[in-house]
Amino acid sequence: MVDVAVRIAAACLSALLVTGTAFAAPDVRTLPPGDAGSRVPGYPDVMAEYIQLPGGKAPGTPAALNTAGFLRVRPAADGARPGPANAVIVGLPGFSSTPPHWLYLASQMVSRASKESCGGQACRVEVWVLQRRGANLAETQALTEARRKGDPALALNHYLGADSLGPNGQVGPQTASAKWKPLTQRDLAFMADWGFETYAADVDAMIGRIRERSGARNIFLAGHSQGGGFVSNYAARKRPDGRRGAEGLAGLIFLDGGPSAGVQAEPTPAELDAYLARVEALRSGKDRVYTDASGLLGAIAGPASAASQSVTGVYYALSDPTAEAIFPLRVAGMAPAPGDDFLKSVRLTWLARAGASFDTDPVPGGGVQMQILQFLGQGLGRLDFTPLPGTEDRCDRTPPPAPTGPMRALGPPPKCVPSGAMADPGRVHGWVEPGGPSGPKEAGRAELWMNAQAFAPTRSNIRPVTVTFAESGRRVIDASDMVASNWYPSERWDFDAGFIGRYKTLKVDRDGVKLDIDKSAIAGVPVYVARQGFTQGVSGNPFPRVKDYTEVNKTGTWQTPEARAISPLDPAINAAIYFHTDFVGADDSQAGQARPGEPGVSAVSGTLVDWVLKRAKGLADTPSPAALGVRARY
Predict the structure, then answer these.
(1) Residue 19 has pLDDT above 70, yes or no
(2) Which of 200, 193, 187, 176 is nearest to 139 (CA)?
(3) What is the average pLDDT across 419-448?
(4) Nearest one of 296, 329, 291 to 135, comparing CA atoms
(5) Which of 87, 138, 244, 348 has the fewest CB atoms below 10 angstroms from its CB?
(6) Where does the pLDDT of residue 544 fall: very low under 50, low under 70, confident under 90, or very high at 90 and above?
């Protein structure tokens, strides 16, 4: 069997000989070990650690798997002894998202804060981003081994099979030679109880490790997209200690999702019966407990896809970004869509693959992105592509699929969707980043997305655990290599998120489900909102008893008088160039050189750091790495 690295080198040499383009065979990049391997790319003053804590005790879940996972982002200057924090932000990712999507927002917040003065000392902000429990089941030993040895082929061979690399130099689906096999629905039947209350208990456990000093109040809860819905629900939830979630928080932060007080007073008896019936269907095995190549994301969801994306992340980490990528943009099982043939045919660098995989419109006006990612993606630049001369009118006539999922105004249909015939087979296409004379005016950069997908801190406290599953038997779960994909997305969590978010009040104590939600409890706590929408002013504040309210949207920034008195913002600051995931992944490399919301200056971190610091009171002691058992993985 020809080694993967040899095939990559051969493909790149072939491109060099055919086109003369300077795409040399990629040198494998080495990753820094120890503490240096946990410095965030582009932010050497920021340290990241991947942490598990004992979490909520979900019924039926093996004790070793009742864990809450977090990406902890903190000032690197602290070393092994974190100083007292002026503010701690607990972040909740959105639908199917994981902590890597928050890597740059979290790092920007920590770095920006350290340049401010708090009582004559550098301000300290920590960000703890919750990992979805399905990612805690990821078996990542081979990912770690590939990083440690600098050989991405080790990960490819383990998860997908050495023969998954086809004669065309592109990786295909998993083959029989792969050593890793996904856990089954029956193995993970206990995930039927991985719903809202379990995740809320995980957050309780994390907040419980923060010791606020006397009179302090400096813990903020932040959520992006679906995570914003969690923020509302958690703030309204009655905790085991009898207090509502909002009572222990210094502020609520909503990033393009979730600032909702509910649209219905309470569920009808029929709605409640239907909810409990679905819970029972999950518990009985009638309905599957984790998403597997179904739902809004189709074939790019589920453990097989997540494992493939995790291997891609190792290649991002270890490969020359200008070398030709070996992972295609379209995978088997995806519904046919305009542009598929083009995306299967076009040859891309690793950087271009990263950009084209998540940009909302990688060929401007070409309509080649998946419909769901036209909504959920980022503005990352554009593909360096022009049709072969004479093929400009050879458009892809594939009918578009039926609309699914959340939608926004996408403009008129493209006049000509690129087809495979337009792609030059002898050219490896690069990526045009935003900014400069030729780059588009967008919020993000493909390099940031690639690095976020590639990053996994070398510092972690996660140890392997051995679990006996109902169908797969004894398996070692070592989830210490942080993954950018949720390997086993919980159907119960997604179902709960939609159901609980609908109501102003919700009280259930039946059939093993206990919930007590009252959104009128969201009163007096400061609220920050950044979103794509145009709603602003008093009518945009869904919490009538919240007087300290700030909103950044596409038209500008609006604040209540109370908010403006504490931390006034330029009303011209806006999110006009932002797409959905830009709110947590925007570029901030030009901070201080332009107004927040303009290219290169994050509208969120450029306004939120000051907002948080002005509303945090006192100091909090966060746990030391030693107390958590953190050590370098390699």
Answers:
(1) no
(2) 187
(3) 93
(4) 291
(5) 244
(6) confident
The owner of tokens 């980490």 is 317
Candidates 166, 57, 46; CA nearest to 111 is 46
Among 342, 357, 25, residue whose Cα is nearest residue 169:
25
- 3-state SS track over 164-181: HECCCCCECCCCCCCCCC
Residue 3, pLDDT above cutoff 50: no
pLDDT of 18: 31
Contacts of 207 (CB under 8 A, 6+ apart): 90, 219, 248
DSSP symbols for 474-527: EEEE---S--SS-SS-BHHHHHHHHHHHTBSEEEEEETTEEEEEEGGG--SS-E
Determine contact, residues 425/592, Cβ cutoff 8 Å: no
Q: How confident is the model at residue 408 (pLDDT cuts 50, 70, 90)?
A: low
Tell me the HSE value of 315 on the side-chain side, using a 13 A CA sphere: 27
Tens digit of pLDDT for each residue in 436-457?
A: 778 899 999 999 999 999 999 9
- The per-residue pLDDT for range 92-150, each reduced to its tens digit, is 999 889 999 999 999 999 999 999 999 999 999 999 999 999 999 999 999 999 999 99
- If one counts every other C-beta atom within 10 angstroms of the C-beta of residue 314, the result is 27
The Cα 317–Cα 336 span in angstroms is 30
3-state secondary structure of 149: helix
Enumerate the β-bridge partners of residue 220. Answer: 89, 251
Please list, residue by residue across 231-244, b when 16 or more beta carbons sit within 10 angstroms of its beta carbon and e when fewer do. Answer: bbbbbbbbbeeeeb
Alpha helix (H) residue ranges in 258-339:
269-284, 303-318
* DSSP-assigned letters across all residues of 13-58: HHHHHHH----PPPPPPPPPPGGGGGEETTEEEEEEEEEEEE----
Residues 458, 33: Cα–Cα separation, whole Å? 7
C-beta contacts of 1-8 below 8 A and 24+ residues apart = 1/162, 1/163, 3/153, 4/152, 4/153, 4/156, 4/157, 4/162, 4/165, 4/326, 5/151, 5/153, 7/165, 7/169, 7/326, 8/169, 8/319, 8/323, 8/324, 8/326
Q: Is 10's pLDDT higher than 60? A: no
Q: Is 274 left (phi over 0), alpha (psi -120 to 50) or beta?
A: alpha
How many CB atoms within 10 Å of residue 33?
14
Contact 261, 504 (CB under 8 A): yes
DSSP state of 388: P
**585, containing H or E segment:** helix 582-585
- Would you give the distance in Å from CA 465 to the centre of its chain? 25
Of 563, 506, 55, which Cα lies nearest the Cα of 236?
A: 506
The CA dihedral of 274, 279, 280, 283, to the nearest 10 degrees, is 160
Cβ atoms of 124 and 280 within 8 Å: the answer is no
Please give, one letter per residue, the 3-state secondary structure of 66-115: CEEEEEEEEEHHHCCCCCCECEEEEEECCCCCCHHHHHHHHHHHHHHHHC
CB atoms within 10 A of CB 399: 8
* Residue whose entry in the numeric block shows the structure tokens 């599957």: 288
At 405 the pLDDT is: 56
* CA nearest to 91, candidates 80, 81, 77, 101: 101
Within 13 A of 256's CA, how many CA atoms are on the CB side? 26
Other C-beta atoms lying within 10 Å of the C-beta of residue 404 = 13
H/E segment holding residue 319: none
Tell which residue, 102, 127, 128, has the closest CA to residue 114: 127
* 588 φ, ψ (degrees, to nearest 5): -135, 25
In the beta sheet, which residues pair with residue 515?
A: 508
